[in-house]
Predict the structure.
Amino acid sequence: MKKRLPTEDEFYVGYMPATPQHIGSAMRRLIYLLGFAIAGTAAIAAWQQKQFSSSNFEFGIYTTAEGFLFAEPFPHLLVTLGKDQDDNDLYRTILLVGSGKKGADQFLRDLVDSKKISMGSKVRLAGSLIYGNGKAIMQVDEKSNVMFLENGFIDLPKPKTQKTANLFGEIVDPKCYFGVMKPGDGKVHRSCAIRCIAGGIPPVFRTESTGYFILLDERNRRVSPEIANVVGDVIMLEGRIIQWNDWNILQVNSEMIHQLATRKKWKEGLAPFNSGITMCN
């Protein structure tokens, strides 16, 4: 079809009663094109949108739980579930965290000093539950009303070592990720996660396919504070997987953490890390 060219009299201003044919046709095509572009952009944005988290934080609601209290590798309550088919004890691990961006280490130290409760003792305590994706955390504070239960004491069960693996994922703080903040991961949550981990909340490595891993170093100790430098980034970690009740632990080499942190600082020159604003040394 031969393309129609505008004639010399196709001049249009807003007060004229009719739009010249060529100008009107061009404007209609432009409007249709913009409409399809807007609809397509909206559809793509909706498709790419992350699903809303189903995790929960029972803020202000205190739930009572009974279990065995431990401070290592991180403060946690070991709740008895029963026996498996081989008559071995089954436990659920409830990580304990403090109020705000703090771990529960000071809470346990004060508890031991004031009530003479040793680690491994069976206790009853109250706290605000944080839960999601099959994991449970409890925020404890001065209202937790910890009570020692007689005739209850166990040694910390030994975890089961599995295999060495290379995993891709992101380091998150479990308190926010499993219920307190939505979203609790990614770049938008990075600064908050750094402060939570620096405050003593255990770092958790979130993967897409293999679940969640509490990070420890090769000596089964808490990882270096340098880990804060790579929080919120998609990284690869190599380590030994250890089954710890309903959690997994990933033992990573301290030198690898140092190399990742150094590379990140060199690459981006992040002023907050250099000045110590977001780290606990």
Q: What stands out?
A: The first strand starts at residue 56 and ends at 57. The radius of gyration is 28 Å. Residues 91 and 245 are 6 Å apart (CA to CA). The first helix runs from residue 21 to 48.
